[in-house]
Design a protein that fits this description.
The structure holds two protein chains of two kinds. By secondary structure, chain A is mostly beta strands. Chain A has no helices and eleven strands. Chain B is mainly β. In chain B, the strands form two sheets. In chain B, strands 2, 4, 5, 6, 9, 10 and 11 form a seven-stranded mixed sheet that branches. In chain B, strands 1-3-8-7 form a four-stranded antiparallel sheet, with no helix packed on it. The chains are: A mainly beta, B mainly beta. Chains A and B meet through strand 5 and strand 10 of A and strand 4, strand 5, strand 9 and strand 10 of B.
């Protein structure tokens, strides 16, 4: 099935560094969401975006809904060990179509 | 804990057997979704319910798969005559309505021997 393009695929950073990742699509999405998944668990919602151009923060996390509606960005500031995990973007394409289309994921590893 | 609950967490079965998974959504959420996630991939949509009505099914949902939500509360996903390719994590999510984000359970990991 279709999956959104997410980059980078993986990141190795030191604690305290800032992180940026993005998600792109060839088609328009009306809702963008960012989830984090730890091993053996389900995705946990981080941020939801509903309007083109919207910038939303949740603590050290900030996400933006691209103005073209074809992309979204997630930034994490001052990373800490519990930020380790896989980050997924997800989009909903049309009003009335409720299924989430997920990205391929970005695996974040913090180097001690 | 008032999150989405899935049971069992793990299921190991022989090829050809039938399996059934259960999902209990967050209370008062009328939308319930099923997704499948294979190793290294993001979840892929299977089907969803608004109350007891099944409104959409993915092409991934072959004839061997059936999902129900008989009273508009919990849901079951059954796989008949399991195959090796059915090995995956099966995730359930729920939302209050179509405008609210989906919240996921911790999934059922299915392994086919």
């Amino acid at each position: 099935g279709q999956q959104l393009n997410q980059s980078p695929q993986s990141m190795f950073i030191q604690e305290g560094e800032d992180v940026s990742m993005n998600c792109t699509s060839s088609s328009i999405f009306n809702t963008w969401l960012w989830y984090k998944q730890d091993p053996g668990e389900g995705p946990v919602l981080l941020i939801a975006l509903y309007k083109a151009g919207e910038l939303t923060s949740n603590g050290r996390l900030t996400a933006q809904f691209g103005i073209t509606r074809k992309d979204s960005f997630l930034n994490i500031s001052a990373s800490i060990p519990s930020d380790v995990g896989i980050y997924f973007c997800a989009g909903i394409s049309n009003f009335g179509n409720e299924k989430l289309t997920f990205g391929t994921g970005t695996r974040l590893t913090i180097i001690p | 804990d008032t999150g989405v609950s899935q049971d069992p967490r793990h299921k190991i079965t022989k090829r050809g057997q039938n399996v059934t998974f259960r999902c209990d959504p967050i209370s008062e959420h009328n939308r319930l979704y099923w997704y499948r996630q294979t190793l290294g991939q993001g979840p892929e949509f299977l089907t969803y319910f608004q109350n007891e009505a099944q409104l959409e099914k993915s092409r991934l949902l072959s004839d061997r798969f059936s999902a129900e939500r008989p009273k508009g509360s919990f849901s079951t996903l059954e796989i008949q005559r399991t195959e090796q390719g059915d090995s995956a994590m099966y995730l359930c999510a729920s939302s209050f309505d179509s405008h609210q984000p989906q919240h996921f359970g911790d999934g059922t990991r299915l392994s086919i021997l």
